[in-house]
Amino acid sequence: MNDIIISVKDLCKQFGTFTAVDHITFDVSRGEIFGFLGANGAGKTTAMRMLCGLSYPTSGSGTVAGFDVMKQGEQIKKRIGYMSQKFSLYDDLTVRENINLFGGIYGLSDARILRRTAELLDMLKFRSEIDTLVGSLPLGWKQKLAFSVATLHHPDVVFLDEPTGGVDPITRRQFWEMIYESAAGGTTVFVTTHYMDEAEYCSRISIMVDGQISALGTPSQLKAQFNAKTINDVFRTLARGAKRSE
Amino acid sequence: MLILIIMPIVQVLLFGFAMSTDVNNVDLAIVAPHRTEAIRKMVERISANQYFTFKGYIAGNAIDEELRTGAADAVAVFDEDKGMQIILDASNPNTATAGAAYLQGIMMSDSKNPMKLETHILFNPQMKSSYNFVPGIMGMIFIIICAMMTSVSIVREKETGTMEVLLVSPSRPLGIIFAKMVPYFVLSCLNLATILLLARFVLDVPMSGNISGIVIISLLYLLLALSFGLLISTFAKDQATALIISGMLLLMPIIMLSGLAFPVENMPGILQAISCIVPTRWYISAVRKLMIEGLPFIAVMKEFWILLGMTTAILLLALKNYKDKLG
Description:
The complex is a heterodimer of chains A (246) and B (327). By secondary structure, chain A is an alpha/beta fold. Chain A has a domain at 1-53 and 156-165 and 188-246: Rossmann fold.
């Protein structure tokens, strides 16, 4: 149960003289929901892009699903799913067409695509919308659909970049239920967010400040460590640069 | 943006000084088997005239060659019996009409020895300007579809975030952009076919040259335009920028400097030099030679190599830029 699915050591990313990611080190186990928190501009998205094979680290090392991020990017891409901040589905295509497209891109057979389509739509309860243009779906539905498409091919890890931006609390809660189900099924979920209350939903979290990881552990551990009631308080403390410990 | 201030200034200067449909120069060759004193005086007067450049004496049977290859815009033939004949290359009707008018002016001023004057118009007997414009329109349409639309399409994926998702997927980055370019290429091929059919059957453009030559050079030009589209997409962050860059950097120079609307020969030297780096200028020149003057493909080899070189350079630059931006 403790096999490590993501392992990162001293990972750095520099853009000219600006160090966006400054020597981060952490591990994620299979089936965990790992929350990658931090303020906007702290370096979360840059770090995640390196893990997805979208950008090369300046230095340091990392493996995802057993493959090296520097040299085996192509292998990594086959084993991960991704949901971008902007939702990542084609508004001009229908639900069915989007699923077919991404199913094809990830190499699923036609039969498997059909099966997965049926499963996903039943789970989401919008079978009737299968031929609706994605652009006309409400935001919450698009978001859930995007997540389903990201997990279409049963990836080892699914990376979610600020997935719950701009949605109402009820939809957010429903979305997190989908995440729980996925994790229970063995998919590791790596989610970045700047909503500190969502941290409570994660198995373990890390908080990035100025490109470095300032805190790493389960939500309860961190709250105890910083003597805080909520993760939001933990974050405020860190952001202020002061630490209180017992 | 500086462009909004500089662009109008540039345009006023260009239109004021450079763009003109006035004919500034007619290259004239002369056929005069018997060079009488009167003829020599005529030639002197013509040479002295600022609107003419005397290109030398040629033989009677070399007239066709001279005009087709563009060595001369007009040939004056002095014949003892028939007086003076002017044979004009009317693939640019503007130059032809003006040339004829100037020559007639010179004739009239020689009241001592008036000669009879006959005018023959070659290559474009009805002086249809549509012949002139069809190659130009082709040059413009293909750039719009292949460069502008392709770049906007690629940038749209960047803007909506779907490009990122594609890049994270197992699809190869090169495969992704290839896939973006193919539809516009196919569309342009359809357009090429349609334009050629329309030109031949509706506008009665002669199409005397080999169609395959026109198709080859057009396909090369399409590749060039697609490469431009890709290059622009690596610089633009959103669709509006892609559109503006395509419009300002591509469309404007093309409309003004490529020979589409204003003959290149009439431009001041510096603009003629700039025109050399506008790929459409070479394409239009090649298509005019092939389509309207009916020259064989050999005659456009210069344009072919230039376009090929440009395509290779732009494509390599675009691909390198694309790879760099991914890292």
